[in-house]
Design brief:
The chain has helices at about 1-25, 100-115, 120-125, 190-200; strands spanning about 55, 60, 80-85, 90-95, 130-140, 145-155, 160-170, 175-180. Strand 3 and strand 4 (about 90-95) form a beta hairpin. By secondary structure, the protein is α+β, with helices and mostly antiparallel strands.
Length: about 200
């Protein structure tokens, strides 16, 4: 009788253990990683006499170019994409996803400051350079975007270049859009560039 009672108690305990295991809820599946911000397509650049071609999206900061903002955005969390036409016109978009919204806000402010002081720094490096820089206004999209123009020339050789730049932010994502070609500001597609900037920020998330 004692042996039978022991067997029944053992079976009951086993049954309770199995029931407990069955009733334990399965661990929640980890949330999927958020999709990375989207880049501009070639067709979303300002109109040009020849079609735009979009390069691949690359990890990290650009190896060259972006003279106004070089060394500011961290390589971690940054990607970039270059665009070109058959003429002397090029563009670039850089996107950085910061660890926090506060860091993204600080990065956007630092990038804006770098654009505002870019021409003065270029003149210090090259005394033969002349030019004008203007703040071209705010684009109301998400946390906002700001547009700048920098017109440079070398009178000794008669060359002129115009660059359009913008910095925009949506949450933790900060984007910089750059556009440049030979010529002067009155020949640059400023309104088209503002539209491109609006699209670039809207596509982040």
């Amino acid at each position: 009788m004692r042996t039978l009672r022991t067997a029944l108690l053992t079976a009951a305990a086993t049954g309770l253990a199995v029931t407990a295991l069955v009733q334990v809820p399965a661990a929640a599946a980890p949330a999927p990683a958020p999709a990375p911000p989207k880049f501009l397509s070639a067709g979303q650049l300002p109109a040009s006499l020849t079609p735009w071609t979009a390069g691949p999206v690359r990890q990290g900061v650009p190896a060259e170019g972006s003279v106004c903002t070089a060394g500011i955005a961290p390589a971690a969390g940054t990607r970039h994409r270059d665009f070109r036409t058959e003429l002397d016109t090029g563009a670039r978009q850089t996107i950085t996803v910061a660890a926090t919204t506060a860091r993204a806000k600080a990065l956007a402010a630092e990038l804006r400051s770098a654009l505002e002081t870019c021409l003065d720094r270029l003149k210090e490096q090259d005394p033969g350079l002349e030019g004008e820089a203007f703040y071209q206004g705010r684009v109301d999209i998400e946390e906002g975007a700001h547009v700048y123009s920098i017109d440079t020339s070398y009178p000794e050789v008669g060359s002129t270049d115009i660059g359009l730049y913008s910095v925009g932010r949506d949450g933790r994502a900060v984007t910089v859009v750059e556009w440049g070609q030979l010529g002067e500001l009155d020949g640059a597609p400023l309104e088209g560039f503002k539209k491109t900037t609006r699209t670039a920020v809207a596509k982040l998330y």
